[in-house]
Amino acid sequence: MIGIPVGILGTGKYVPERVLTNHDLEQMVDTNDEWIRTRTGMSERRIVSPEQASSDLAYEASKIALEKAGITADQLDLIVVATITPDMAFPSTSCILQEKLGARRAAAFDLSAACSGFIYGLANAANFIATGTYKYALVVGAECLSKITDYTDRNTCILFGDGAGAVVLGAVPEGRGFRSFELGADGSGGELLKIEGGGSRLPSSQQSLEEKRHYIQMAGSEVFKFAVRIMGSAAEEALRKAGIEKSEIDLLVPHQANIRIIQASLNRLELPEDKCMINLDKYGNVSAASIPIALAEADEQGRLQEGDCVVLVGFGGGLTWGASVLIW
Ligand code: ACO
Q1: Where exactly are the structural domains of the chain?
Q2: Which of 38, 180, 265, 328 is most deeply packed, by most CB within 10 A?
Q3: How far is the CA of 220 from the centre of ligand 1 (A)?
Q4: CA 43, CA 81: separation in Å to the nearest integer?
Q5: Topology of domain 6-174, per CATH?
Q6: Is 267 in the active site?
Q7: Beta-carbon neighbour count of residue 263 at 10 Å?
């Protein structure tokens, strides 16, 4: 990256208390624990209570990230929330979060890039800081996927969970921080992963609700093939831009969509599993929140040491993808 070196000053995560296990799902759809574990790597996921929305999860994660960064909310210049489950169409979840935090000086916007949203958000915010426009930015991935999941569809309902992860970005010493970003999109694959209802194409109506158009629809195996291809190539491109070799990676923090997708990425990057953050067994796929939750958990577990080379990589609806290389 060009300009002032920018890095992560603090991380935070929040997951709701309620646990939905594979055995619970066996009672809801025609599936079984063994199939889910072997085909996805997932055992349980967290689910919000009916009154919780994405901004509530974002707020909890953000408080921790701010505390770890050693700054207060009123020092924030920018808040970016990546989500496909905003509290409402507008105002944005980032504006609702700004008010909850009391971050009165901060500009705020939401970003829609599905599961790649957090990396898109990092790239945006980091550039504001690198150019000297802003000093501190909060980037959050927050999702209540349980609220857009059809719990009668076994193809999707086994995959998703709820939660939020947040980071505070700011200037760091020379030699540390973000080295590169690789972002991409392929709108021709938009049909593979979508929610049709509730937008301007198909506004909410009795009929759209009856037809379940407000739930996630996914062509699982096509998305799987795309993910296997793009996770490796996006990470390699980010490494090439950073001038860093695969062998120098200390920790890979991938989007937590499926253990088989993660294993394919590890094979391509020639990395052993102990150099990868994996927590999809506990939380499932939390879309834009997956990577920041995994990053915050790696931080909590002491797996991020100063000078470590960390690679973030994700893919999602759009289709979209993103990768970043940073020195911790
Ligand atoms: N339990 C039992 N059997 C099931 C289940 C289930 N929950 N789901 C599907 N099956 C069956 C299918 O019906 C099929 O049966 P059939 O052969 O009789 O037709 C069989 O299992 C195999 O189905 P596949 O879809 O081929 O299974 P696959 O190995 O591809 O795994 C999965 C499915 C887990 C969905 C996988 O394709 C995947 O992970 N895809 C990527 C999903 C993803 O990452 N999406 C990103 C979404 S994030 C976002 O943007 C919100």
Answers
A1: 6-174, 178-327
A2: 265
A3: 5
A4: 28
A5: Peroxisomal Thiolase; Chain A, domain 1 (3.40.47)
A6: no
A7: 15
Note whether 138 and 66 are within 8 A (CB): yes
Q: Residue 221: in which H helix or E strand, if any?
A: helix 220-242
pLDDT of residue 287: 98
Q: What is the mean pLDDT of each run of 10 residues along the chain (328 residues)?
A: 94 98 98 98 98 98 98 98 98 98 98 97 98 98 98 97 98 97 98 96 96 96 96 97 97 98 96 97 98 98 97 97 98
Active-site option among 22, 95, 115, 144: 115
CB 166 within 8 A of CB 292: yes
**Burial degree of 268 (CB within 10 A; 0-12, 13-18, 19+):** middle
**Collapsing DSSP states into helix, strand and coil, what is residue 82?**
strand
Most ligand 1 atoms within 8 A of CB, residue of 224, 281, 286, 287 to mutate: 224
Query: Same CATH fold, 178-327 and 6-174?
Result: yes
- Quote the CA–CA distance of 51 and 231 in Å, as a whole number: 35
- CATH code of 178-327, in short, is 3.40.47.10
Q: How far is the CA of 6 from the centre of ligand 1 (A)?
A: 39
Q: Identify whether 115 is a catalytic site residue.
A: yes
- Does the pTM surpass 0.85? The reply is yes
User: What residues are in contact with ligand 1 under a 6 Å CB criterion?
Assistant: 31, 35-36, 39-40, 114-115, 154-155, 158, 193, 216, 218, 220-221, 223-224, 227, 257-258, 285, 287, 316-317
255 a catalytic residue: yes
Q: Which atom of ligand 1 is nearest to the CA of 157?
A: 7
Which residue has its alpha carbon closest to ligand 1 atom 41? 224
For the chain, the 3-state helix, strand and coil shares in percent, each to the nearest 5, are: 40, 25, 35
The pLDDT of residue 36 is 98
